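debug: dumping io for the single-chain case to check the tokenizer round-trip. Nothing else runs in this session.
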Amino acid sequence: QVQLVESGGGLVQAGGSLRLSCAASGRTFSSYDMGWFRQAPGKEREFVAAISRSGYTTYYADFVKGRFTISRDNAKNTVYLQMNSLKPEDTAVYYCAAGRRTDLSSQREDYEYWGQGTQVTVSF
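debug: decoded output
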């Protein structure tokens, strides 16, 4: 069982950077693959990035490759999303997710636990 809380969102100008954090409760964090999703108003939730239990393997959506980096620190029960070169179309609520058998899936139904989300707004 995992409880997730995101933080680090805010307002930033296009071309700027933000670092999102997702803090997990419990002692089983290292047993879960982790992912980041985002959802803009009026749109469906979409996959952003995923990372394996050990942090050895990562997977990214095409629209963030080269700009975003997912990482984790299992000793701190925390997963991060470093977002650089932000664009206005990156504006969304960003959600952290955990799953035991995701295989770094991009499908939201493959993740069992979700945080409440943190707002990211990128201005022109």
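debug: round-trip ok. The chain has a mean pLDDT of 95.
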